[in-house]
């Protein structure tokens, strides 16, 4: 792996008071000399903003793509996965906090240029790269440079994100992105602000933009936390919004929470809560809804919305059988939205 120079960031402007305004995400941090923004890895040095996560992943993994989770994008394949230190959200229930809450110094980061990342992907014959573990929005410059090179090599790029990104910056960050999983962490602004220190409307705006102004394939994940965002009413409202604004074909994943970080006083999500949410989604008209972080073959299998044939049977993150005929159901010919073959 090569050493990488600290990179001057995109998406910022100097302020009259000597500080810098970071315009990458809706937090719009005012950053003084020598200081980092909220996410730790964008820092003001000498009146310039630096993206200090650039070229410094916290490590690489190879995961099943179903773990992102994506169920309608290259199913059954493995994906090179990495993140950096830091995060632009402040989720009290973070399930990955040892990375997302780390500063660069204590995350044992390694040096890897965009070329190194693409070479690593090729070395293991992987069809795609996931920007994941923490929120890739905050290392957007690195995402752009890797995804551009990856596309030249026929390798796909996947954002696993909370969707909390500025309207202008996202046009650049997603330029070479092929797919995304967006966390919709709840469906009230009260929950969003109290538990994640961000706002629901900014995330909904990103979902609308993905749907209406890009070709990015995307799926949505909601981590259900007992007593916080798991009521039938809230789930129903979320499903109604998705149906009305994004249509019936965006896959929706309800996943189980485990006690972690600053939320250790809650129980694990009971499997019945996930099944209840999935039933609400299916009854409301959403065609593809899945349960995650539990063993539940029924909730993880893709069924044809036309004839109810089993198309892709899964168990946790494993694909057991894949009966797809190209992008279609082999029994009735219904075209299934997504990208099923590389
Ligand atoms: S990307 Fe980081 S520094 Fe920039 S506004 Fe968001 S939290 Fe602040």
- Major sheet details: 8 strands, mixed
* Secondary structure category: alpha/beta
From the spread of the alpha carbons, the general shape counts as globular
Mean pLDDT: 94
Task: List the ligand species.
Answer: iron/sulfur cluster
Q: Secondary-structure element order, as H and E?
A: EEEEEEEEHHEHEHEHHEHEHEHEEE
Determine Rg (CA atoms, Å).
20 Å
What is the share of helical residues?
25-40%
Number of distinct helices: 9
Low-confidence stretches: none
Oligomeric composition of the shown chains:
single chain
End-to-end separation in angstroms reads 28 Å
Instruction: Please tally the β strands and state the result.
Output: 17
- Could you give the order of strands across the largest sheet? 7-8-9-10-11-12-13-14
| Proportion of residues in β-strands | 15-25%
């Amino acid at each position: 792996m090569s050493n990488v120079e600290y990179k001057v960031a995109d998406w910022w402007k100097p302020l009259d008071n000597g500080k810098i305004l970071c315009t990458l995400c809706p937090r719009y941090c005012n950053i003084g000399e020598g200081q980092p923004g909220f996410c730790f890895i964008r820092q003001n040095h000498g009146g310039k903003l630096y993206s200090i996560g650039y070229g410094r992943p916290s490590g690489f993994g190879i995961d099943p793509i179903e773990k992102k989770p994506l169920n309608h994008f290259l199913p059954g394949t493995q994906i090179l996965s990495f993140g950096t230190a830091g995060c632009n959200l402040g989720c009290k229930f973070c399930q990955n906090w040892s990375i997302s809450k780390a500063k660069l110094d204590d995350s044992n980061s390694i040096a890897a240029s965009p070329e190194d990342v693409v070479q690593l992907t090729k070395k293991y014959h992987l069809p795609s790269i996931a920007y994941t573990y923490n929120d890739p929005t905050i290392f957007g410059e690195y995402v752009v440079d890797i995804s551009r090179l990856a596309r030249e090599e026929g390798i796909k790029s996947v954002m696993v994100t909370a969707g909390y990104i500025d309207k202008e910056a996202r046009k650049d960050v997603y330029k070479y992105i092929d797919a995304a999983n967006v966390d919709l962490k709840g469906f009230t602004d009260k929950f969003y602000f109290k538990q994640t220190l961000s706002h629901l409307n900014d995330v909904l705006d990103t979902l609308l933009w993905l749907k209406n102004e890009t070709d990015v394939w995307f799926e949505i994940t909601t981590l259900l936390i007992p007593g916080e965002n798991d009521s039938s009413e809230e789930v129903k409202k979320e499903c109604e919004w998705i149906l009305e604004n994004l249509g019936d074909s965006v896959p929706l994943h309800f996943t189980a929470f485990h006690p972690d970080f600053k939320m250790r006083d809650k129980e694990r999500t009971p499997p019945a809560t996930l099944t209840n949410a999935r039933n609400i989604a299916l009854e409301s008209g959403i065609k593809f809804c899945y349960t995650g972080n539990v063993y539940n073959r029924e909730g993880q299998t893709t069924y044809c919305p036309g004839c109810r044939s089993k198309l892709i049977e899964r168990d946790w993150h494993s694909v057991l059988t894949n009966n797809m005929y190209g992008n279609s159901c082999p029994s009735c010919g219904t075209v299934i939205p997504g990208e099923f073959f590389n």
